[in-house]
Amino acid sequence: LEISCHRIMAFFHVACMSTLITPLTAILQSRSCVVMSGIEGRIVPTGSAAPLPKVGVLALQGGFHAHLKALERQACVQGVEVRSADDLADVDALIVPGGESTAIGHGLVNSDLLEPVRQFAATNPVWGVCAGMILLADELSGSKAQPLIGGLKVSVVRNAFGRQINSRYSSLELSASAVQGRLGDSAYFIRAPLVASVEQDVEVLASLPGDASKVAAVRQGNLLATCFHPEISSDDSWLQYFLGEVAGFAPAHFTKPPEPTSVAPWYAIPSKDAEPDTAVKRAFAVFQQGGVIMDVTNGEQARIAEAAGAVAVMALERIPADIKRDGGVARMSDPAMIQEVMAATSLPVMAKSRIGHFYESKILEALQVDCIDESEVLTAADEAHHIDKRSFKIPFVCGAQDLGEALRRIAEGAAMIRLKGNAGTGNVIQAVRHARSVFSEVRQLCSLRDDEIFAYAKTLRVPVELVQQVRDAGRLPVVTFAAGGLATPADVALLMELGCDGVFVGSGIFKGENPAQRAAAMVAACTHYKDPLKVAEASTGLGKAMVGLLEHDTPASVAALLDQQLSGKELRSAENKIGGIDLTVAA
């Protein structure tokens, strides 16, 4: 009997230990949940061992991370990335996130996903957010043709509020059913679309206050579309409406959204309908994530960038390779050129001003560019002071080589960080160095004790509150792109794999052969960096990349070479000998 008792106790001990060491994912996937029948409206228990319904988030480009974070807070669903048709076949509902609709559309086509998503949306629950609303629409009003999923019987106006300077955290006027459903009545509108017209079987859930014709949210059977962003507004009510009312999932419980400062856009919720503040400016960059921003010097190059799937363009008279080549003082570009680029593309347009030259930035803001790059690529105007970016209504991006420099620029008001690299060289070594520096320093900061962050903040010469925010969020509190020397699709994938949110590419496209094909390949590498085979396919047959500079090489002086009356192959050979730029490559 004593032996039997010992055996029984040992059995219970092993059973308890096996429960303790069961992986969390296995526990989550077997949680008890209920599913509401979309046809009969009945709540049907599925049992304690039933797998969780999977809600896919299209993860080609845009703010998909914020949706995945929000899904983690909901009981009885599992959020997963959708990057391929195989991923899509495994989900029960889909969210198409905010981002650049043209970039996501090109991504759908190039990933062979457009037709599978169309078929999925015909019968399954889909929520389109901002760019996702555009993609779900049957028709675009006043815009050129682009790839669309379709199915939603509405006409949508892209960028209905104008450029980024008009973005706001704004109020909504809810329909009676939306009020009854306790849906949120305010959210971020970031370069948002609006519904111009709806057909009879489309239900309007929200519009702009005082103007019912400006429709902001609609439902049509299994399709939901919003032009605003609840996922970054600390508001899960619209997600829960989608899961419960549209998809028929009934979560048993949910976790409250975290403090806004610890998740995108990493800032306190602004006052309703107020002038753009830090939160609105940081939110702009959230929807650039997973994308490529391309340097362009004219409208034709801007059109090439948009056709390739870029998320934005940087308008400048000379790309960095030419700035290095020509020497002299590099200044803000001619406003006429910037306006030409703005007129040529529907993408956000950025432009550069010199470090410390706040009046160049005032001019760029007056032109209503979407973002200003206070850039070390241009000749600095102030050797001691950067621009106070907090008073501007449009976001700034600034360069950084390490965590301290990044946080000092953020403290000045930067809404986006660009890891500097070495622009115009075609050599990725410094971009890698700066990425590893920033991300390793963030990891080091996250390991500090509470009483150690004060000395760390003093060492970095930044406010301790900002250091604490990085520690709480586990990352920089702004979107972080790589830049400087990326010349191949493999370079792009490398920086994405290291942890960047996206990349800037300039000279690497228009100083290599086949710029249109090369631009599309850079985008493909950014989208599919997790799949080396797809990056290999994108890299195939691109022709010669730009001539790169070794780290300590000096760029060629074109004037000196031309003084020697060199041209053609002789010019190319002379440039190559000193690591210069190849002028004969098609641009």
What does this protein structure show overall?
With 587 residues, the protein is of the alpha/beta class. The strands form five sheets. It has an eight-stranded mixed beta sheet. Strands 17-18-19-20-21-22-23-24 form an eight-stranded parallel β-barrel, surrounded by eight helices. Strands 2-1-16 form a three-stranded antiparallel beta sheet. β21 (396-400), α15 (403-411) and β22 (416-419) form a beta-alpha-beta unit. 51% of the residues are buried. Mean pLDDT is 87; it is low at 1-47, 553-562 and 575-587.
Q: What's the arrangement of strands in the largest beta sheet? A: 4-3-5-6-15-14-13-10
Mean pLDDT: 87
Distance between the termini: 89 Å
- Roughly how many Å is the radius of gyration? 26 Å
Main beta sheet strand tally, sense and closure: 8 strands, mixed
Q: In total, how many beta strands?
A: 24
Helix content: 25-40%
Secondary-structure-based class equals: alpha/beta
Please indicate the percent range of residues in DSSP E strands (runs of 2 or more): 15-25%
Oligomer: single chain
List low-pLDDT spans. Answer: 1-47, 553-562, 575-587
Morphology: globular
Q: Number of DSSP helices? A: 24
Write the layout of secondary structure elements.
Blueprint: H1 2-20, H2 24-29, E1 34-36, E2 43-45, E3 54-58, H3 64-72, E4 78-82, H4 85-89, E5 93-96, H5 101-110, H6 114-123, E6 126-129, H7 131-136, E7 137-140, E8 152-157, E9 168-171, E10 173-174, H8 176-180, E11 186-189, E12 194-198, E13 203-208, E14 211-220, E15 223-226, H9 237-246, E16 249-250, H10 278-286, E17 292-296, H11 299-308, E18 312-315, H12 320-326, H13 335-344, E19 349-354, H14 358-366, E20 371-375, E21 396-400, H15 403-411, E22 416-419, H16 429-446, H17 453-460, H18 464-473, E23 479-482, H19 489-498, E24 502-505, H20 507-510, H21 515-527, H22 532-539, H23 558-563, H24 568-577
Parallel strand pairs: 3-4, 3-5, 5-6, 6-15, 7-8, 17-18, 17-24, 18-19, 19-20, 20-21, 21-22, 22-23, 23-24
Antiparallel strand pairs: 1-2, 1-16, 8-12, 9-11, 10-13, 13-14, 14-15
